[in-house]
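Chapter summary example.
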Amino acid sequence: MKGGKNRWIILMAVLVVVLLGIVSERVFAKQIHSRNLISSTEELSLRITEELTKGNNSFAAYVCELSDEQLVAINHNLDGFFGHVSTYTILREVNDEVRLIRFDLEVSDNYYVYQKIVNGEEIINNLDADILATKVQEIIDSCQAESDYEKVRFYHDYVVTHTKYGFLDGENEVLSFKAAGALLHGTAVCNGYAEAMELLLLCSGIDTYMAVGTTEDGGHAWNIVNIEDEWYHLDATWDDPVPDMGEDSLHVYLNVSDDIMEKTHSWNRNAYPPCTSLEYNYYEQEGKAFQSFNDFKAYVLNEMKSTNEMEVMVTDSESIKYDCGFVVKEGGANSVSWQTYEDGEYMVMLITTD
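The structure predicted for these 354 residues follows.
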């Protein structure tokens, strides 16, 4: 009888432990939920960006179902504007799927530049950021534009005409990927062009993202910018011809829609706002967009009186046959040549006369 009683006590004890385990798991689940359990690379990228925007050097979070490979490659999913993940440490293995991880962050010079120009915070013990802030303020002060569209166009043209596509030499090579490469050294790759645009725009109060995606050449970065509550793609890199044209800038990718951009670029549509408008497209705003051949012809003949190079956009290139022979026959030019960019309902023509 006594042995039976002991077995009953042991059974009850086991039952209590199991129940406590279930309760503990439920409590722990609630704790994880309150800490916003991260279960995708997109969610983790947003959280990292949020922490970097605050200037934080580290944070801890529960991460679910993300492999070591995904964690190692997390910086590839960031625009990197305000910084990146330097290291991460697994603090606790909760179960096979959930881990508590601390992410150590390296805040970029862009963060300190932004804080100084926008919020008046002094930069301490960071000479590189201080020099970059001085340059950014100089460019902003030189911009006489009033509307957001005019500011976007000014900064686009500034970055394109003051930057050559390529890599800096030696120890400065890493700057080719940063705003400093474009703004201070005049040489950068796509990431540097996009960072420079984002830094100038954000410091001028214009909302923007640095988009990360791909083209037929591989990984690529550009900007998505907000003008009057509408979003537009802007690719300063692709508007800077190779070989470099010096003071001249193309505007093929200055404020275009998803429909136009998707012909040559790919990106995660869920990570960025949709771009559906062409209202503030460069050619629409500058009176250089044509559907009628007669309007196109009249514009070119008039422009020839003051310049030998014209940049126009035609919106119905398949049904309207753009023959530039009239430039010689009626405009009096010795010769004419033209290049086309894009096609279909959005074809840009760069016309040069001699």
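To summarize the output: Residues 132 and 138 are 10 Å apart (CA to CA).
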